[in-house]
Amino acid sequence: MKSEFFIENVKCYGCRNTAIKEAKKQDLVTDVDIDIESGKVSLHYDGSKETLARVKSRLHRKGYPEKGKNNMLSSVKSYASCAMGRWGSSSNKKEIQRIQTLKL
User: Fold this and answer.
1) How many domains, the chain?
2) Which of 32, 18, 35 is nearest to 77 (CA)?
3) Distance from the CA of 1 to the CA of which of 34, 51, 82, 102 falls in 20 to 30 A?
4) Distance (Å, rounded) from C-alpha 13 to C-alpha 86?
5) Angular region, 86: left φ>0, alpha ψ -120 to 50, beta rest
6) pLDDT at position 104, please?
7) CB atoms within 10 A of CB 64
8) Domain range holding 76?
9) Whose CA is closest to 31, among 56, 1, 60?
10) Could you write out the DSSP letters of every residue in 42-97?
């Protein structure tokens, strides 16, 4: 089943990466895509209300609440999650490796 909903605080690919990884941690989720500009989440999963609720809860805990449910704490959490998502991206790993070779 496919479900779509909107989340807040998605500002860049780091945010997107973190949110996608977090949603995929939930069992029975088969695919996730998130549009950075709109915050639209396209979620493919088993169709149960429990799975959808758990995904939304996971995203909220990382700082990406459903649209209209944002607060200061969620905003702060999203910045930390964003940084982790940027650090873990493959393009940043390549850049880190390039810089390390320059220092040698």
Assistant:
1) 1
2) 18
3) 82
4) 7
5) alpha
6) 45
7) 28
8) 2-103
9) 1
10) EEEE---HHHHHHHHHHHHHTT-PBTT---HHHHHHHHHHHHHHHHTSHHHHHHHH
What's the pLDDT at 77? Answer: 76
Q: What residues are paired with 6 via a beta bridge?
A: 40
Query: In the chain, how long is the greatest CA-to-CA distance?
Result: 53
Retrieve residue 2's tokens: 């496919």
Strands 2-6 and 29-34: unpaired
Cβ–Cβ < 8 Å for 45, 1: yes
Average pLDDT by stretches of 10, the chain with 104 residues? 95 90 94 96 96 96 90 77 64 54 54
End-to-end CA distance of the chain: 51
- 3 state DSSP class of 15: helix
> What is the β-pairing status of strands 40-45 and 2-6?
antiparallel
Q: What's the CATH number where 23 sits?
A: 3.30.70.100
Q: What is the DSSP letter of 2?
A: E
* Six token digits for residue 90: 């493959």
